[in-house]
Amino acid sequence: MNGAAGSNARDPERVADVGHDPSRHADLQALVLDASTTLISANPDELDTKLRWTLSSVATGLDAEFAAVYGDVAAGDDGAGDGPDGAEFELVNSWSRDGGDVAAADREAGVGPLVARVRDEGVVRLPRLSDDEAPPECARLREAGVESVLAVPVVMDWELWGVLAFAGPRPRHRWDDHEVVLVRSLADMIADSLARVERERRLAAQNRRLEEFASVVTHDLRNPLNVALGSIDLAEETGDPEHFRRARRAADRMDGIIDNVLGLARAGRDIGDTAPVALDRVALVAWDAIDAGAASLDVDDPGRYDADEDRLVDVFSNLFRNAVEHGGDDVRVTVGRRRDGDGFYVADDGAGFSADPDAIFDRGESGDAGGTGIGLTIVRQVVEAHGWAVEAGESAAGGARFDAVVDA
User: Fold this and answer.
1) Residue 42: CB partners within 8 Å, gap ≥ 6?
2) 290 Cα distance to chain centroid
3) CATH number at residue 33
4) At what angle do helices 241-267 and 177-215 cross, to 10 degrees?
5) DSSP code for 46
């Protein structure tokens, strides 16, 4: 049975048989084909606009006044997230004939609860919402003047990722099978287009990181390499051991740059599995991994957060190294919880920032002629990969302070 049960004895002028018409079938098929071609050709910065046009075009062919795509936006191009539940889906894109007035908002609120049914039913066909046996969640839709709804799954990597829904102003005898087949084909094309665009965005980000690596290799490594080669030549000519020591320092400098570049490459990848992590333990592990010299560390209950522990070690290691390198041999570093409890901080009592704190996370902004400026870029990328934000400012002791703001 299609949709909700109800009497067939209806006024034929009120109950439209909009789907059972060969010419409309051909027109709808042409619209879906045209829409699919449009989506295939969409660049990342065009997809939202072209998807909205697609919804408008196909909705018109279905005699619908509202169309929407709901999805698990956190899943990206990796398929579904932590369980396909309609309450977790977010509105990705929509079109309304009236351009987004209150009635359109009511339709959105009404269609939203229906997407949970797609998980169990696959396709939800509701041709006559005014029937007595129509689902109770349709009340908002009926108040907004909607009489028929068709909702189909949007699938990525064989998992339910979202829902494509159309809502119409007139009751129907039924949603025909050919309409469902065409709309499901459109849903597949939408899924493919969203996944493709996300892959293209990630590829563009990877290309930008490759350009950063090329810059480091061609610029940052060239100077210490020239110093090392020149020092070796002088050592061979004079036998003065100071030239060997200078060459050794240059080699150490190159080794540090290589480590930083590898860290930047790792920071550019997505984080792995997350789990509750005690930051006091992570901070101690990171402190042991650096050459702290005479510097000291205080850890004051920074809290627990869902995170990729290995990547957080990278964050703390780079912040600690930054404090030791710029704060002096006896710098005191403190790790604690933010006053509002919405994150944690790393602060020191060193000299503070010699560069603009707003630009300190940009590659190359090390504030030190001997630095690469990569370490804080790694911090920003890892923190943001967790969905958090990072801020830089002055500590209570006049040194540097870095805050990771965690959105609870």
Assistant:
1) 50, 51, 193, 197
2) 31
3) 3.30.450.40
4) 170
5) T
Specify the 3-state DSSP secondary structure of 61: helix
Measure the CA angle with vertex 303, ends 297 and 309; round to 5°.
Answer: 80
Element (H, E) at 161: strand 159-168
- Beta strand pairing status for 275-278 and 304-307? antiparallel
3-state secondary structure of 125: strand
Most confident of 95-99, 276-280, 368-372: 276-280
**Of 104-118, 127-141, 179-193, the least confident:** 104-118
The reply to whether 186 and 307 lie within a common domain is no
- Quick one: which of 118, 154, 155, 153 has its CA closest to 137? 118
Contact of 7 with 132, CB cutoff 8 Å: no
Q: Quick one: 99 exposed, middle or buried, by C-beta within 10 A (0-12, 13-18, 19+)? A: exposed
The DSSP secondary-structure symbol of 16 reads: B
Q: How many residues does the chain have?
A: 408
Least Cα distance to 304 among 360, 343, 330, 331 occurs for: 343
The pLDDT of residue 299 is 94
Q: Which domain holds residue 122?
A: 22-200
E strand map for 2-72 = 66-71
Query: Domain of 305: which CATH number?
Result: 3.30.565.10
pLDDT per position as a tens digit, 254-294: 887 777 667 656 655 567 788 999 999 999 998 988 878 88
pLDDT per position as a tens digit, 169-193: 888 888 889 899 999 999 999 999 9
- What would the DSSP string read from start to end of 360-391? TTSTT--SSTT--S-HHHHHHHHHHHTT-EEE
Report whether 394 contacts 401 (CB < 8 A): yes
Specify whether 175 is located in the same domain as 292. no
Contact criterion met (CB below 8 Å) for 195 and 203: no
Q: What does the H/E/C string look like for 334-359? A: EEEECCCCCEEEEEECCCCCCCCHHH
User: Tokens 């459109």 label which residue?
Assistant: 186
